[in-house]
């Protein structure tokens, strides 16, 4: 029987653990800082073990756990992946993560190949399903001797329409810090033949409507540097190369003003204790508390009656509630407040949307292909985010252990040996990308 070690028992772990426990030839160990979370996932299953393990406090024990496994899955924060990778390399164990490959991880490629194992990264949703679905379309076009001139990809994790009940159009099922910090990232992409570079502070100035059939209109805005994906996917678009994020309308304009106010600053401050939101906002805007709304609106270049001002008021930034006691930075203040107000209620569903557009030129025509994934969470069950992040990784684990994935080295899932069986099984599990191709009129 093969043995899998899963490090971490966060909110996306559940579907993976249940999938692996269903495999009759795999024993699954979940090691988590919070033992009760690991135990809740394993229950009393005969092929499961739950352990208490904190990598930050017990790094010496990592080698022992890794040595006992055939494959390790790291669902820890990405800052720990390299530590886990070195332990896997030392003991000749396979590794799977859903995180982006950092340069330090990629640098291990030769050593991983020599060890005869695979470190499979970016096998979640975004990154993950986005890579696999795009690469399958790309390879099919190339087999038909088409040349891809345009690639556009959008992905978003959002409340389902009926659960979209707050003015910002977003809800968090865990800490919002990662989502908010992404709003500080610069972006690069190719658009209609022009290379575009956007500084992080201007990110939310660049958004536009994106229509998704059956769901309506969203906002799309750039997601970091799109250009390396041309090489990853093996394409050379001459017109457009763009990867973006989807949100409900209004998100970008509101986050832009939140950023202008300074609430995305992650610098440690000593002036937060004992203050209210209104007092802090007054200080940041440089206005008197008694005229906070009108003064803040003027500083932000908005009418006092603006919907954006309504959104800031809804967040409580103009109110007298005390700041979170644990807040050490302005970002702590913002994310703490969001986590209070912007969470899923029992029975609410989330929504995953992945939407890709390809233009391919052939000798006698140009074709437009779309690939669309729409996935809803299960009321009072697994979220769509948890399923789409953890099930691709779980399938990858099984394929590695049963010898169906034979590639070695540091990989992302852009080779047919990986993406074909993973996408095929995801479709059987109800997670499917629907493709449509039409000929573009001359």
What is the annotated CATH architecture of the largest domain? 3-Layer(aba) Sandwich
Q: Give the biggest sheet.
A: 7 strands, parallel
Judged by helices, strands and strand pairing, the structural class is alpha/beta
Count of distinct structural domains: 3
The value of Rg in angstroms is 23 Å
Unreliable runs, pLDDT <50, ≥5 residues? none
* Span between termini: 59 Å
Number of strands: 16
Strand order, largest beta sheet: 3-2-1-4-5-6-15
Choose one word for the global shape. Answer: globular
Helical coverage, percent range: 25-40%
CATH superfamily of the largest domain: NAD(P)-binding Rossmann-like Domain
CATH fold-level label of the largest domain? Rossmann fold
How many DSSP H or I helices? Answer: 16
Would you kindly provide a written description of the structure presented here, covering whatever features stand out?
The protein has 442 residues and is of the alpha/beta class. It has three domains: 2-123 and 385-431, Rossmann fold (3-Layer(aba) Sandwich), CATH 3.40.50.720; 129-253 and 345-382 and 434-439, 2-Layer Sandwich (Dihydrodipicolinate Reductase, domain 2); 255-328. 34% of the residues lie in helices and 24% in strands. The chain is built from 16 helices and 16 strands. The protein has a seven-stranded parallel beta sheet, with helices on both faces. Strands 10-11-12-7-13-14-16 form a seven-stranded mixed beta sheet, covered by helices on one side. A hairpin with a 3-residue loop joins β10 (208-212) and β11 (216-222). α1 (13-21) runs parallel beside α15. The longest helix has 18 residues, at 384-401. It is globular and about 70 Å long. The model has no long low-confidence stretch (mean pLDDT 96).
């Amino acid at each position: 029987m093969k043995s899998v070690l899963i490090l971490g028992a966060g909110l996306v772990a559940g579907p993976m653990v249940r999938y692996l426990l269903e495999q009759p030839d795999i024993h699954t160990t979940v090691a988590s800082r919070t033992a009760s979370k690991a135990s809740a996932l394993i229950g009393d299953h005969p092929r499961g073990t739950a352990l208490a393990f904190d990598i930050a406090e017990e790094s010496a024990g990592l080698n022992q756990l890794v040595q006992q496994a055939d494959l390790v899955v790291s669902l820890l924060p990405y800052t720990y992946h390299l530590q886990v990778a070195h332990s896997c390399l030392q003991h000749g164990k396979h590794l799977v993560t859903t995180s982006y490959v950092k340069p330090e991880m990629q640098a291990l490629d030769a050593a991983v190949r020599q060890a005869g194992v695979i470190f499979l990264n970016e096998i979640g949703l975004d990154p993950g399903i986005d890579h696999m679905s795009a690469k399958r379309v790309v390879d099919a076009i190339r087999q038909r001797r088409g040349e891809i001139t345009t690639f556009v990809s959008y992905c978003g994790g959002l409340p389902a329409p009926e659960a979209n009940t707050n003015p910002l159009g977003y809800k968090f099922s865990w800490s919002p810090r990662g989502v908010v910090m992404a709003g500080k990232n610069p972006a690069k992409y190719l658009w209609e033949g022009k290379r575009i570079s956007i500084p992080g502070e201007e990110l939310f100035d660049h958004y536009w409507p994106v229509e998704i059939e059956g769901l309506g209109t969203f906002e799309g805005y750039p997601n970091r540097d799109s250009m390396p994906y041309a090489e990853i996917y093996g394409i050379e678009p001459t017109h457009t190369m763009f990867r973006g994020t989807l949100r409900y309308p209004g998100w970008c304009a509101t986050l832009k003003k939140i950023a202008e106010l300074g609430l995305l600053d992650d610098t440690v401050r000593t002036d937060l204790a004992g203050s209210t939101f209104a007092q802090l906002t007054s200080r940041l805007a440089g206005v008197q508390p008694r005229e906070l709304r009108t003064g803040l609106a003027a500083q932000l270049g908005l009418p006092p009656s603006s919907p954006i001002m309504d959104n800031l008021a809804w967040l409580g930034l103009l109110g007298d509630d005390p700041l979170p006691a644990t807040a050490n930075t302005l970002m702590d203040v913002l994310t703490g407040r969001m986590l209070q107000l912007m969470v899923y209620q029992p029975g609410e569903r989330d929504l995953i949307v992945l939407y890709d557009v390809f233009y391919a030129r052939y000798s006698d025509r140009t074709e437009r292909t779309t690939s669309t994934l729409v996935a809803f969470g299960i009321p009072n069950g697994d979220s769509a985010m948890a399923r789409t992040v953890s099930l691709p990784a779980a399938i990858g684990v099984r394929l590695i252990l049963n010898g169906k994935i034979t590639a070695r080295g540091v990989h992302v899932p852009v080779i047919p040996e990986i993406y074909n069986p993973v996408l095929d099984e995801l479709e059987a599990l109800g997670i499917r990308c629907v493709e449509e191709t039409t000929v573009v009129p001359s």
